[in-house]
Amino acid sequence: MTSAPAPGEKRQTVRVLVVTPTYNEADNVRQHVEAVLARPSAPDVLVVDDGSPDGTGDLVRALAEEHPGRVELLERSGKLGLGTAYVAGFKQALAAGRWDVIVQMDVDGSHDPRAIDALLAAIEDADLVLGSRYVPGGEVADWPWSRRTVSWIGNLYARTVLRTRTRDLTGGFKAWRTELLARLDVDSFEANGYGYQIETTYRALQAGARVVEVPITFRDRELGESKMNTGIAVEAVSAVWRIRREPAPSARPVNPGGDAAGRR
Fold this sequence. Notes:
Elements: E1 16-22, H1 29-37, E2 44-49, H2 56-66, E3 71-75, H3 82-96, E4 101-104, H4 116-122, E5 128-132, E6 139-141, H5 145-162, E7 174-177, H6 178-184, H7 193-206, E8 211-215, E9 217-219, H8 230-245
Parallel strand pairs: 1-2, 1-4, 2-3, 5-8, 6-9
Antiparallel strand pairs: 4-7, 5-7
Helix pairs in contact: 5-8, 7-8
């Protein structure tokens, strides 16, 4: 595992794992995995599948045979939720101790695998990089105005309650230094859906992590069904206040005394 550099010092070439949760993504998983494997950083891939009845797991097993040592499948017994899928994937990755950076992203095409390059370039001087829709250069394509409005207001609400300048708290395209994830106690993350994305980023800020945002273009899925529903949105709203009230378990600040929650 590489150690954190001094400010301005470049990090060595990193070993990268992309963690992707799936449920009924047979239409998308092969294209996603092959596009990730083709990036110049040569990431490995861990797919966390929640017992998809459409054969997603079988497709990942076939990909693992085609790309030995680079593709893994973590199968779960049923549809247990996005947040718990990432917790399971992060725990398996940390236990293996093989990677310096863990990238989390969606499988449905909304996160462009080519953007992994920009996240990894930014993490040379950061602990957590967010692929952001709401910084200059970032955008959302293909969404109706109603969904854009809900997303923008949701981020404004979360930023206001948590008193942070981070623009995209609900986005799910992130690159984590494994040193940071190891300090954060991933088992302590309680939220699911959008609430999970808010909680994990805020816990990193509380821990004094260097968090930066790089612009991405977010596109709506072309194949398969969206997992978004009213319950996920309501859970995110209520989770923000719990996240604010509760300290980050086992999050030891890198720079004690710093205003972590307001740093960028």
